[in-house]
UniProtKB/TrEMBL annotation:
This is Tc1-like transposase DDE domain-containing protein. GO terms for molecular function: nucleic acid binding. It comes from Caerostris darwini.
Length: 77
């Protein structure tokens, strides 16, 4: 296993990007300019509840344990 692992399972920012992407894709009408897209992304980021960040931080010990059990392979994260 490569250490430190470079698995996306160990990168909680991916979860935040998913939240932002779903928020932007749910907009109707969709952003049609780069400026509108940037504003949509910024608004989505600012509206992520603090609890979501805390939950991701608290998930790190479980992520590390799962990655170790999987010997660096895929996990449920």
């Amino acid at each position: 296993m490569i250490w430190p692992p470079r698995s996306p399972d160990m990168n909680p920012i991916e979860n935040l990007w998913d939240i932002i992407e779903r928020s932007v894709r749910a907009q109707n009408p969709a952003p049609s300019t780069l400026s509108q897209l940037w504003t949509s992304i910024e608004t989505a980021w600012l509206n992520i509840p603090a609890e979501d960040f805390q939950r991701l931080v608290e998930s790190m010990p479980r992520r590390v344990a799962a990655l170790r059990r999987a010997k660096g392979g895929p996990t449920r994260y």
